[in-house]
Automatic annotation (TrEMBL):
This is chitin synthase. It is a multi-pass membrane protein. It is found in: Cell membrane. Belongs to the chitin synthase family. Class IV subfamily. InterPro entries: Chitin_synth (IPR004835), Nucleotide-diphossugar_trans (IPR029044). GO terms for biological process: chitin biosynthetic process. It comes from Capitella teleta. The keyword Aminoacyl-tRNA synthetase does not apply.
Length: 1298
């Protein structure tokens, strides 16, 4: 019957197709909706960018025309006006333009332009302060600061000359085209030092572009140097700030013995560029503040004196009358200058943000490049239309006739466009387009960080288009991802060192991984006692991943298509306790039912994905290994799946040790132990090697993996990335967990991602970077055995959280992608759920305490974690610890209001069952505790309905202006808005009522249950009863341990006899437990020798315990050695008997297949039996001997650990109860004093926004503090959720093809 399940017989073609629904599949309607939304998003973004760029140019020319000190009039047809020896002839401008002349008219426009210029500095300063506050950043060097301040000062001077002194002299047409000639330094650098791949034609055009830019500057000097010199000098100085983007990496020529002056300058600038990159955040703060001060000083120096032609005087700058356009004495301020300030400053803010969004969403060309190209022609068209339109469309101020400086000295529009400035404008525009041609070839990865997009942190609001174009990073591949350690010695030296002496610090290189290196993903799943549906779920995910990768490989290799998201992958599934119970040394045993079930359902999973049964899945290769065995499958796409069958008698079991097993195998043996590449290549390969940690019941799609890869590719400091976990199942417990998971991801994880780092990347679906795991104090530390009570809680109860804690402490970052969806089965039963959270809750507390205890060192080492972020985590931790007291008081107060009973009565109603539950959790068995918790949960759910009535009554009585009511509305509103921002999950909000009913259970009973069972370190889920054979095996192991103890007792007996101690009738017994005993004679009292003998008794007892532990460890080593000797599956006696019997058992010539019985099991398929490669066999033996040898049962060590865990439990329970009781006492005492005359409460009057009634509100200080703390926490999470949702949308757009 078993064979029929493994292969298709010719007479049995009939199928039973499994009905397995695709729970996380995105139907075609949603896919098409996303595509349509992407098109709309691109069009909207392109329109906004074009509007912002046009508005920036138009508003700038409005302002500069209004502050023109040289002519205070508008030209009219047939007339000419002169002022300050400047004569302007008649022109073709319509007669609707009227004369305007008023002294000091330009003061308010000077301030308007100055404020617009300073907005980017303020924004950059605030943004940098935010990063420094929540993420520690390196400090810049003094020389770097001086260099940057010098360059930025030149830029500020140039901007001041160009905008304040030059543009007011120009009409709108010439002003717009002159801004196209601001790329003097960029075009000059491109012409002087072309790239290595630059051809002759391209270089010639670079030179021509530079000549045109230089010609534009010279033209202004030649025409009228005395009037237009600020324009020429300003154009040069403005372009200096973009030097960083056009300095290529210096390529040294080995045949060039002497460097030219340009090479030396390039090397010096490149060094400055690297230093700026390292400390750009703090440097931005210094530069922003300096530019604010320096630009204001220039304003006061140029316009504060009347000695300059453009000066207005110090008093006039601050005279309120100059902000009024009327001639009367009324000091009412006109706000037209503020309107134009907003029209000039706001587009810069928006356009910079839109630019970043478009690059991250991989839509730069349609949304940014095309609008930037069109912005100049559109701005020119708008100015021409306005100057030749006599309607009131362009009239902003009826009294002031606010307008541009229109064209002068020409015979009409045709004369302007064709004969005078049209050709020059076209040349300037084409030169700018050629210099910024890299905008058409973006190479940056999706979701790129700002530093990868722009070379300079600032933008210039006055020259917005040119600033963004020249500031966009020209060479994306040149950008160095900093933060890794540099090589301390040559790589060649490392190749000759012993592997144990190798330090990964010495091989870290400061380079970005080359784009040609394909990511290698190892999908590693741990299995134990999963059900059939759970196994099918993960196998379907593996088949889908294989199908996706095969399609990409075919497109790449066969059709020669450039595949951007190409990757390679391999699957490793590790089965814990994969064999039926057997005795040590026994070879006649089989795999357990779960392994057979896995081999059976793999066909169902393949059928569900490929709609056909796969013949290759019937014939896995079978390999016997030092830890058990392997089953090697080949998927239809050619990818491998290796199933590792672990024998707990040969290797250590449980999930953390399985993770250690595959980490050392994949990263240590298959990567770092390679001899065909050098250490630098190993490091780069490690940065492109990823481990996808999975649980045995997870369901995901290939898109989810690629979304996690996006986060890895954008930043080398990201060590782990997790996706959105969706619990599946049915029943009230599942409904509760769906809402709980949703709130945790919507608010908590999003906030951690935005503010600093995610603290836990769940092991059910997370992607880890190989180089980060291989770093110091990560993978090596992860192999620690628990030696203290807190270790049992932190290390093995929540291994995924501990691994993330190690990564954060090592300086890496953990991120979260809300678009990467994965589904996993969650506990359905009440007891299973409580046992799961009994592991998670203490582990969470232990890891957070560990992180907080090393907050200072972690903040120094990790650039993404700051002291402020740690304060945020402390607030959450304190809120969690005090949560039971808060819920307790909420229930008591609500019962008092709802049932109109005395507060003491409601207090006793809640206090008595809580006290009883604590006692039961401390003394009763786990089953009794779970039963009691389920009964109390039911009663608490009923109480919550009463509490809801009490809350409603309190809201009705207090009104909407009461702080409690406002906090309640804010929290409920936060959940509703969060659900609306997650449209595919918004129906989860209906499970919120179940969540509300379970609040006392989860925040009161579960916390009590977890802390009171802190000493229980069993897994608690998927447990199966031990068989009689397992019990017999444990008994035999215990007997062998006793024999080891007898051996140690003989050692101690000889040690006691060597002391020369003799017995007497009366004396002091000297013993080491039951191992040795002697008697020392005394007389009337204790002699000195007797005292010495008594001290020796204590020491011998300690030595005896130590030796017992040591023998236990040696025993474990012997177990490992025995496992190695079982490679052939037989002992010496078996070998002798087989030699005598000849070759009777080797009919098929396969010695491996006949060594153990499990490998011949037909339920595993009819594949070939192969031998393990010698090098891999040696690796497994060494790994087991060093880290993974089975831990022998040691009664003394177990008793010691149990005693320490109970002591930790007792301390934790006492501290927990004490803190919460103190809070309850404080709150109740203060609240009772409110009604008295000596009330400690704070009173104020508030007006209800609906009834407009004035009510007196009184709250005690403690309540106000709690409301503020919880309100601030929820508020921070609410706003961070918005930021993370935007990033998620950009990630979805970037991965959607139209």
């Amino acid at each position: 019957g078993s064979s029929s399940t493994m292969e298709q017989l010719p007479w049995d073609p009939f199928r039973e197709v499994p009905d397995i629904s695709d729970r996380n599949s995105c139907n075609s309607c949603i896919k098409w909706s996303i595509k349509i939304l992407k098109i709309v998003f691109i069009l909207l973004l392109a329109t906004l960018v074009l509007g912002c760029l046009t508005s920036s140019k138009v508003s700038l020319l409005f302002i500069t025309a209004s502050m023109n000190p040289f002519f205070k009039f508008r030209e009219t047809h047939g007339h000419a006006y002169s002022w300050k020896n400047a004569t302007y002839s008649t022109c073709g401008v319509p007669s609707c333009m009227t004369q305007q002349e008023k002294p000091n008219n330009n003061v308010r426009w000077i301030w308007s332009l100055h404020m617009a210029m300073c907005v980017p500095y303020v924004v950059c300063c605030l943004k940098s302060l935010w990063k420094v506050t929540f993420k520690m950043k390196a400090a810049p060097k003094g020389s770097t600061v001086l260099w940057v301040l010098l360059v930025e000062s030149l830029h500020t001077c140039g901007l001041f000359m160009f905008a304040f002194l030059g543009l007011p002299r120009l009409d709108a047409f010439r002003g717009i085209l002159t801004m196209c000639a601001l790329g003097f330094v960029p075009s000059l650098l491109r012409a002087c030092r072309p790239g290595l791949k630059t051809g002759k034609t391209e270089r010639g055009l670079d030179i021509l572009s530079a000549v045109i830019q230089i010609g534009g500057i010279i033209a202004w000097l030649v025409k009228r140097a005395i009037d237009y010199w600020p324009i020429a000098i300003g154009m040069v100085l403005i372009s200096v700030v973009w030097w960083e983007n056009f300095i290529d990496r210096y390529q040294e020529d080995i045949f060039k013995f002497k460097k030219s002056w340009f090479d030396r300058i390039t090397i010096r600038l490149e060094n400055h560029k690297r230093d700026i990159q390292k400390a750009h955040v703090k440097l931005n703060i210094y530069v922003s503040l300096w530019k604010l001060i320096f630009s204001t000083a220039l304003l006061l120096a140029f316009f504060g004196t009347e000695y300059f032609p453009w000066g207005v005087g110090w008093d006039a700058l601050f005279d309120a009358k100059n902000f009024d356009a009327d001639d009367d004495d009324d000091l009412d301020m006109d706000y037209d200058w503020l309107i134009l300030f907003a029209a000039q400053a706001a587009p810069g803010l928006l356009c910079k943000y839109f630019f970043t969004m478009a690059v991250r969403a991989a839509i730069q060309i349609p949304a940014i490049t095309i609008p930037m190209v069109l912005s100049t022609p559109v701005a020119l068209a708008v100015s021409i239309w306005a100057c030749y339109d006599c309607s009131n469309t362009w009239q902003l101020n009826a009294e002031d006739r606010l307008f541009w400086n229109c064209f002068s000295g020409h015979e009409g529009l045709t004369d302007v466009l064709i004969y005078r400035w049209g050709v020059i404008a076209l040349l300037f525009w084409l030169a700018e387009l050629w210099t910024t041609r890299y905008l058409w070839y973006p190479k940056v990865e999706r979701l790129a960080k700002t530093e990868r997009i722009f070379t300079h942190p600032f933008y210039c609001s006055l020259t917005l288009g040119q600033s963004l174009a020249f500031n966009r990073r020209r060479n994306d591949e040149e950008f160095e991802l900093l933060g890794n350690k540099k090589v301390k010695r040559k790589a060649n030296d490392l190749e000759h060192r012993h592997p144990d002496d190798m330090n990964l610090d010495e091989t870290k290189v400061n380079v970005k991984p080359p784009s040609k290196m394909n990511p290698m993903i190892y999908c590693c799943a741990t299995m134990w006692h999963e059900t059939e549906d759970e196994m099918v779920q993960i196998l379907k995910s593996c088949f889908r991943l294989d199908k996706d990768q095969h399609a990409r490989r075919m497109a790449k290799d066969v059709f020669r298509v450039k595949v951007k998201d190409y990757y390679e992958f391999e699957i490793h599934i590790l089965f814990d306790d994969a064999f039926e119970p057997h005795l040590e040394g026994d070879t006649n045993f089989e795999v357990n039912q779960f392994v057979k079930q896995f081999c059976r359902v793999i066909q169902d999973a393949g059928l569900a994905v490929h709609n056909v049964r796969l013949a290759s899945m019937y014939v896995p290769e079978k390999v016997e290994t030092p830890y058990g065995g392997q089953l090697k499958y080949t998927f239809p796409g050619g990818n491998k799946m290796i199933v590792h069958l672990k024998d707990k008698l040969k290797i250590r079991h449980r999930k953390r040790w399985s993770q250690v097993m595959y980490m050392y195998y994949l990263l240590g043996e298959k990567l770092w132990a390679r001899k065909d590449i050098n250490s630098k290549s190993k490091q780069v390969e490690a940065e492109n090697t990823f481990i996808l940690a999975l649980d045995g019941d997870v369901d995901f799609r290939p898109e989810a993996v690629r979304l996690l890869l996006d986060l890895m590719n954008r930043d080398l400091s990201v060590a782990a990335a997790c996706g959105r976990i969706h619990p599946i199942g049915s029943g009230p417990m599942v409904w509760y967990q769906k809402f709980e998971y949703a709130i945790g991801h919507w608010l908590s994880k999003s906030t951690e991602h935005v503010l600093g780092c995610v603290l836990c990347s769940p092991g059910c679906f997370s992607l880890f970077r190989g180089s980060a795991l291989m770093d110091d104090n990560v993978m090596k530390t992860y192999t620690r055995r628990p030696t203290e009570a807190i270790h049992y809680v932190q290390y093995d109860q929540g291994e995924d959280r501990w691994l993330c804690t190690l990564l954060l402490q090592a300086g890496y970052k953990v991120e979260y992608s809300a678009a990467s969806d994965a589904l996993t089965y969650c506990p359905v039963g009440f007891g299973e759920f409580f046992n799961q959270r009994r592991r998670w809750t203490p582990s969470t507390f232990a890891n957070i305490l560990d992180l907080l205890s090393t907050a200072g060192a972690t903040a120094k080492k990790n650039q993404n974690i700051s002291t402020i972020y740690m304060i945020y985590q402390i607030s959450l931790f304190v809120s969690s610890v005090l949560g039971p007291a808060t819920i307790f008081l909420l229930i008591v107060n609500s019962l008092t209001i709802a049932l109109t009973i005395h507060p003491a009565g409601s207090l006793m109603i809640v206090l008595i069952p809580m006290t009883l539950f604590i006692i039961i959790c401390l003394v009763a068995k786990p089953d009794v505790q779970i039963a009691m918790a389920s009964v109390l949960s039911t009663l608490m759910a009923i109480v919550q309905v009463v509490v809801l009535v009490g809350i409603m009554r309190q809201v009705a009585g207090d009104g909407l202006c009461h702080p409690n009511t406002m906090l309640l509305i804010f929290m409920v509103g936060t959940f509703i808005i969060a659900a609306l921002l997650h449209p595919q999950e918004c129906t989860i909000i209906f499970h919120g009522f179940i969540y509300y009913l379970a609040i006392p259970t989860m925040y009161l009973l579960l916390i009590i249950y977890s802390i009171c069972n802190l000493n229980v370190v069993s897994w608690g889920t998927r447990e199966v009863p031990k068989t009689e054979l397992e019990k017999e095996n444990e008994r035999k192991i215990e007997e062998k341990n006793q024999q080891e103890k007898i051996k140690s007792s003989n050692i101690l007996t000889e040690l006691g006899g060597s002391l020369g101690i003799q017995e007497a009738k009366d004396g002091i017994p000297i013993n080491c437990g039951t191992l040795c005993r002697c008697l020392c004679c005394v007389k009337d009292g204790l002699s000195d020798e007797a005292r010495q003998m008594k001290d020796m008794q204590v020491e011998l007892e300690v030595i005896g315990k130590t030796l017992q532990v040591m023998t236990g460890q040696n025993r474990a080593g012997e177990v490992a050695e025995t496992a190695f000797s079982l490679k052939s599956g037989r002992n010496d006696s078996q070998e002798n008997s087989e030699e005598e019997s000849g070759d009777e058992d080797a009919e098929d010539g396969d010695s491996v297949a006949s060594s153990v019985s499990w490998i011949q099991d037909k339920d595993l398929g009819r594949g070939e039996c192969k031998e393990l490669h010698y090098d891999e066999e040696v690796f497994w033996k060494d790994l087991i001997a060093k880290y993974l040898f089975p831990l022998a049962a040691d009664k003394i060590e177990q008793d010691r650990a149990a005693m320490q865990l109970k002591e930790l439990r007792n301390k934790s329970v006492f501290s927990f109860i004490l803190i919460n009781v103190l809070l309850i006492t404080l709150m109740e005492t203060v609240s009772m004093s409110i009604e008295s005359e000596e009330s400690l409460g704070i009173r104020w009057n508030c007006t209800d926004p609906i009834t407009h009634d004035i009510k007196e509100v009184e709250l005690d200080p403690v309540a106000i503090m709690f409301i503020l703390v919880f309100g601030i926490i929820v508020g921070i999470q609410f706003f961070c959720m918005f930021g993370h949702r935007l990033m998620t949308w950009l990630q979805i757009v970037s991965n959607t093809t139209i």
